[in-house]
Amino acid sequence: MMKRKADIRKGFRRFGRQIELQALALAGVAYLLVFSILPMFGIIIAFKAYKLTSGVQGIFSSEWIGLKYFTEFFTDYRFTELLRNTIALSTLKMVFAFPIPILLAILISECRSRPFKRLIQTASYLPNFVSWVLVYGISNALLAQNSGAINQLLVKLGILEKGIPFLTDPGRFWGTAVVLSVWKSSGWWAIIFLAAISGIDSTLYEAASIDGAGRLRRIWHITLPGIKGSIVTVLILSIGSFLGGGMVGSNFEQSFLMGNTVNNATSEIIQTYAFKMGMAQGRFSYATAVDLVQSLISIVLVIISNRVAKKISGEGLF
């Protein structure tokens, strides 16, 4: 008993010495509790006939209807189109956005000029701090069919007879969205891989150079194996948020801002559909059911990708 009390007092003293770090940790825990854990209780309205007028009490007192809204979503005439758009956009972003930060990090690490290296780093990760609202404004100023700077330049040079409808043509929405996402996010994710590269023992490169290995061989046999753990971790996290946009951020913001009545056939995704059902039509239970389907799929993808990564590379999150 005395030993237990002594351990408790010792723990409190250690807590007091680390009060600044503990405060930071507690702030993070509080944030997760308020914005991530407590709202989880609202998931049950996906199985109930909830109405906003019933307030918080309605979450628990509304009529239980089971899987009605899930069935309605799966049988909706737009289900196939929404699923296709969500998967296609997320797949294209994964294919192009995942390798580019790795390549960018390797190119920056191989750069010998420090001023140029810092310039490239700064210029590449600054777009990450630009909101999607501003990105849409910039893209509209550059890519609008009639008033966009790029289209106007191409028309004046005689390359085009009329501007290309990058922002309104359904066939060009996915490509435009992927290019903007890669531009916005690649530099930020490259920081993670640069940090991993900086942790590789420099003597390995020196020994390889002495043995006659060229730059490409050093990258292939030292750099890439050295950052394998970071690559696998980022890949698993990206697959986990695959339907939401993966490592390049939210598909929702991009599709909601850039989507319009003209390109709706390819820009409408599950997230924007759920938002419109909930906020525009007030069908909160139905919208919750739609989002819950996407979340369950994401959880399954995380588990599968982690197991596959462990079998192939021996690296995983858990």
SSE inventory with pairings:
Blueprint: H1 2-17, H2 19-37, H3 58-61, H4 68-74, H5 79-97, H6 99-110, H7 114-125, H8 132-143, H9 149-156, H10 170-198, H11 202-210, H12 215-226, H13 228-240, H14 251-258, H15 264-267, H16 270-280, H17 284-313
Helix pairs in contact: 4-17, 5-10, 6-10, 7-10, 13-17, 16-17
Short description:
The chain is mostly helical. Helix content is 71%, strand content 0%.
Describe the structure.
The chain is mainly α. The chain contains 17 helices and no strands. The two termini are 37 Å apart. 25% of the residues are buried. The mean pLDDT is 84.
Throw out a few tags for this protein.
mainly alpha, 17 helices
First and last CA, distance: 37 Å
Spans of at least 5 consecutive residues whose pLDDT stays below 50 are: none
Structural class by SSE content: mainly alpha
Number of helices: 17
DSSP, total strands = 0
